[in-house]
Amino acid sequence: xxxxxxxxxxxxxxxxxxxxxxxxxxxxxxxxxxxxxxxxxxxxxxxxxxxxxxxxxxxxxxxxxxxxxxxxxxxxxxxxxxxxxxxxxxxxxxxxxxxxxxxxxxxxxxxxxxxxxxxxxxxxxxxxxxxxxxxxxxxxxxxxxxxxxxxxxxxxxxxxxxxxxxxxxxxxxxxxxxxxxxxxxxxxxxxxxxxxxxxxxxxxxxxxxxxxxxxxxxxxxxxxxxxxxxxxxxxxxxxxxxxxxxxxxxxxxxxxxxxxxxxxxxxxxxxxxxxxxxxxxxxxxxxxxxxxxxxxxxxxxxxxxxxxxxxxxxxxxxxxxxxxxxxxxxxxxxxxxxxxxxxxxxxxxxxxxxxxxxxxx
Length: 361
What we know:
This protein is an all-alpha fold.
């Protein structure tokens, strides 16, 4: 009697293969993440490269068009820092200098007396609030250290600022050839159709997702900065930049930005907190239910619960980077599942090799 039949051996080999691939992916996760971000950046620049390539400047040269786009991008970033950089740096330094004192006042409860005396709180309310904050001193300091450690973790990947643009050049120049080489691995017509369909769906999904995230982030940056400056919220430029940047992080990013904006306004004793809360709530509704559906369309069809699950799992596995990659990864898994189900149920799956292969043999 055989312990393992052929079917059991195939299943076991498949399981071992997946475990080996998973172990490799985990061991090389930092490199793979850098390549993923390079792909995202390539999708972001690809429309500009195509536009330049069709113009007189590009002369239908892919390499020349990529060079022009990179030079234009560097120029745009330089101009942005030239006009907005001094104000942003000044407010950032001021907030960085004042923040330790504010956190110390929060942890020892002194902030309750400072704010309460200015807002007309009773002495009893000030005392209770101060005792509450002082009693949670360890939790507040632990939260501050956790935020600092995550920021330091991101700083360790500063080399990506050089590596990702370099990798992006290869994806922009040879992306089509990479896709065709993957498709050519299959030896059956139906398998090639499956791979081509998956790649096309991924292309449409990633292109829509990345460009939509950029547009939403730019809109948030402009709106946050303009409105906060008009309302005279302290450190409006820094908080506006934070709001625009956090728009890139799905689901939790905008929430963290809103909490940070309100927290800084509260700690600096801003006078119109209620108006600020109303603005933050209205803007979130506009972004989620008006701007995002119109800009992103139906390319990333994910239920909000599935997106939230993906974000939480991504945060647990890979921190901030995992949060950002969670939505496109789960959307990719959805595309793979749908294409595979369509492939299995298709009555047109051929079992014969391509005609060219018959002649070659």
